[in-house]
Design a protein that fits this description.
Blueprint lengths: L1 H21 L4 E3 L3 E4 L10 E3 L12 E5 L5 E3 L5 E3 L3 E9 L2 E9 L2 E7 L2 E6 L10 E3 L3 E6 L11 E4 L5 E3 L5 E3 L3 E9 L2 E21 L4 E6 L2 E18 L14 E10 L3 E6 L11 E9 L2
Parallel strand pairs: 2-8, 10-17
Antiparallel strand pairs: 1-3, 4-7, 5-6, 7-8, 9-12, 11-15, 13-16, 14-15, 16-17, 17-22, 18-21, 19-20, 19-21, 19-22
């Protein structure tokens, strides 16, 4: 009888020891990193696990400390609040077990681009080959929720089309060919953008004589064009081959200077005419002309 009693007591003691081991915290399961985009209260979701990886619902992990109180404010109820932009950590504790969670405070109002747009016109060399051109520079400025610049904030800066523009060090930009592109700077969920427009000079004519009541034409491919013309006497500049309804900006009144912006949906001709007066005008007009194809 006594031997049986001892065996029963030993079994009970062993069960108690096993039960204590199962209820002992061995690990805190929580995110390694959290990102907070505003100053709202943040509570870290965490579970306490035993050595077997089983949750211990009766135990709770609490925030015991933060790495930088000027960055992270710890409330009495264990909630956290970001105070400014930066990265810190919060330490969770359950019994003797600890776990650090990195907190990324992304208190950013906007990313400002300066200037917001860049534009240039590529010019062909003597052989007619269009050469790359340097434009810029540009800068991006990260602004915090307090309205102040955040110095040293890491930005991911990328061009939308590396075939059109190349972005270098110090905000330098090289225009490679005609077209539209953009440069984006990203931090968190905030994006700053510089829009880039690159035109191409397709024709330059200097002191072209146009006789009284005569004209000369310049064939053009489909596209959008900016034309500037100057003359020592009145001339008319127009585009031929424009679709009906698209004539706006494609015809200038007679004068000594003109600037036209016109889009050709199909091949057409730029026409410069010296109207004269019934063939009795002031003689030949000397015309300076520049034609730029827009992106």
């Amino acid at each position: 009888m006594r031997a049986h009693l001892r065996l029963t007591l030993a079994s009970s003691a062993l069960s108690a020891l096993i039960g204590c081991a199962d209820s002992a915290p061995a690990k805190i399961e929580a995110p390694a990193k959290l990102t907070q985009g505003d100053a709202s209260l943040l509570r870290i979701d965490a579970k306490v696990l035993n050595a077997a990886g089983e949750p211990l619902p009766e135990l709770h992990a609490t925030v015991s400390a933060v790495s930088d109180p000027t960055l992270l404010k710890l409330g009495n109820n264990g909630e956290l609040q970001c105070q400014r932009y930066g990265t810190g950590s919060a330490t969770l504790i359950a019994g003797s077990v600890k776990h650090d969670v990195v907190i990324e405070c992304m208190l950013i109002a906007e990313v400002k681009a300066n200037p917001p747009t860049l534009a240039t016109t590529l010019v062909p060399d003597a052989a007619g080959v269009v050469q790359p051109a340097s434009i810029g520079p540009f800068t991006f400025e990260v602004i915090g929720l307090d309205g102040q610049p955040i110095l040293g904030a890491p930005l991911a800066v990328t061009p939308s089309d590396p075939n059109i523009i190349k972005v270098g060090e110090g905000g330098s930009v090289t225009a490679l060919r005609r077209g539209k592109a953009s440069i984006k700077a990203i931090i968190g969920d905030k994006i700053g953008t510089v829009e880039v427009e690159i035109s191409e000079e397709v024709a330059v004519r200097k002191a072209v004589p146009v006789d009284d009541s005569k004209s000369f034409g310049l064939p053009l491919e489909p596209g959008s064009y900016l034309v500037t013309a100057g003359s020592d006497q009145g001339v008319e500049v127009s585009f031929e081959g424009v679709k009906v309804g698209d004539e706006a900006g494609c015809l200038s009144p007679e004068g000594t200077s003109a600037e036209l912006r016109c889009t050709l949906a199909q091949a057409g001709t730029l026409q410069v005419e010296n109207p004269g007066v019934l063939g009795m005008g002031g003689g030949a007009a000397l015309v300076n002309l520049r034609v730029v194809r827009l992106p």
